[in-house]
């Protein structure tokens, strides 16, 4: 069936490519959860390692992130050099897509902590939920299934503000995070490009 286009999606191999990246250009607005996970101090980290060793280290990070996202029925949107962007969409992850996204960030943080206990590799994560435009965007030659909108921008900004080992969770997801982790530290941040300060919760997992 691969010759007819029925192959696993590169966004999540449990899905068919025809249902994801091979859909026609366009999309629709829907509520999603999205997170960005980024390796902290990547530039300094890369400076100290030979390229092949750096590639092996980053591949372990990518593989851990990808497996975690797939396990929680998310989509791996992009690998962004030293970061991973993941989407959790109701039509794919089901009605508990927001909770699955929160749990995926916690699992990813735990696994990175466990896998790199003897290594300087550390990550920061930002997660948010809300409306976004989801679909295949690009040109006639190249399209990619992705999400755009303020929800995605906020998650990316939170990732940039997260310290090593921190998951910054917006108020939209704080109640769900509290189900598993109890009350979380409250922090007020002013994110680049946004006029009003934002209240977030800080999830830190013991290593």
- The name of the CATH topology is Alpha-Beta Plaits
- Binned, the helix content reads 25-40%
What is the string of SSEs from the N terminus onward? EHHEEHHEEHEHEE
Quote the beta fraction: 25-35%
Class by SSE composition: alpha+beta
From the coordinates shown, what is the CATH architecture? 2-Layer Sandwich
Q: How many extended strands?
A: 8
pLDDT average, as an integer? 85
Low-confidence stretches: none
Highest CATH level, the class: Alpha Beta
Can you count the helices? 6
Globular, elongated, flat, extended or rod-shaped: what is the shape? Answer: globular
The biggest beta sheet is recorded as: 8 strands, mixed
**CATH-level-4 superfamily name:** Nucleotide cyclase, GGDEF domain
Distance between the termini: 45 Å
| Spatial extent as radius of gyration | 17 Å
Supply the number of structural domains. 1
Describe it.
Strands 1, 2, 3, 4, 5, 6, 7 and 8 form an eight-stranded mixed sheet that branches. It is globular and about 45 Å long. It has 207 residues and is of the alpha+beta class. It has helices at 42-48, 51-71, 90-93, 97-115, 150-161, 171-181, and strands at 26-39, 75-79, 83-88, 123-138, 143-148, 166-170, 185-189, 198-204.
């Amino acid at each position: 069936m691969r010759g007819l286009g029925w192959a696993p999606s590169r966004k999540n191999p449990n899905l068919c490519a025809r249902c994801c990246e091979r859909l026609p250009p366009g999309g629709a607005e829907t509520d999603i959860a999205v997170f960005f996970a980024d390796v902290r101090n990547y530039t300094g980290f890369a400076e100290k390692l030979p390229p092949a060793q750096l590639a092996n280290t980053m591949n372990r990070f990518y593989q851990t992130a990808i497996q975690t996202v797939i396990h929680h029925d998310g989509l791996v949107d992009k690998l962004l050099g030293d970061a991973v962007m993941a989407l959790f969409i109701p039509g794919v992850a089901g009605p508990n897509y927001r909770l699955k996204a929160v749990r995926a960030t916690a699992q990813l943080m735990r696994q990175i902590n466990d896998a790199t206990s003897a290594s300087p590799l550390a990550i920061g994560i930002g997660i948010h939920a809300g409306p976004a435009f989801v679909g295949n965007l690009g040109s006639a030659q190249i399209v990619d299934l992705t999400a755009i909108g303020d929800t995605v921008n906020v998650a990316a900004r939170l990732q940039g503000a997260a310290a090593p080992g921190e998951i910054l969770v917006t108020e939209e997801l704080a109640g769900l995070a509290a189900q598993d982790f109890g009350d979380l530290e409250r922090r007020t941040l002013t994110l680049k490009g946004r006029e009003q300060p934002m209240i977030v919760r800080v999830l830190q997992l013991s290593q």
